[in-house]
Amino acid sequence: MNSSPFNETVWQALTKIPYGETTTYSDLANKINKPNAVRAVASAIGKNPLNIVIPCHRVIGKDGQLRGYRGGLEMKQSLLELESRHTHLS
């Protein structure tokens, strides 16, 4: 695992994104008080060792577009759709 204190901070922030919701890389950088570290946040997300447990699929581009996901963009889209369906059933 490619862990550093920064990566662990990013991964911890990822666990706080509610099920069925998304955030952007820049919003995540702001939440960890590193507003100029958007690329570093994206890099840390790419090193996430537990893709579903630490829900990196919930992070999207500022323009609303899906961005990289180690499992592939199709999988990312599927996970977001699954969560969306489950949150709309309540």
General description of the model:
Helix content is 47%, strand content 4%. It contains four helices and two strands, in the order αβααβα. Strands 1-2 form a two-stranded parallel sheet. The chain is globular, with a radius of gyration of 12 Å.
Question: Order of strands across the widest beta sheet?
Answer: 1-2
What is the count of DSSP helices, taking H or I runs of 4+ residues? 4
Instruction: Report the end-to-end length measured between terminal Cα atoms.
Output: 37 Å
Give the total of beta strands.
2
Rg computed from alpha carbons, rounded to a whole number of angstroms? 12 Å
Q: What is the H/E string?
A: HEHHEH
Looking at how many chains there are and whether they match, the oligomeric state comes to single chain
Class from secondary-structure proportions: mainly alpha
Shape: globular
Low-confidence stretches: none
Strand content: under 5%
Average pLDDT: 92
Kindly state the percentage of residues in helix. Answer: 40-55%
Largest sheet: 2 strands, parallel
Q: Brief description of this entry?
A:
The chain is mainly alpha-helical. Helices cover 47% and strands 4% of the residues.
Task: Write the topology of this structure.
Blueprint: H1 5-14, E1 23-24, H2 25-31, H3 38-46, E2 59-60, H4 73-88
Helix pairs in contact: 1-3, 2-3
List keywords for this structure.
about 90 residues; mainly alpha; two-stranded parallel sheet; about 45% helix; globular
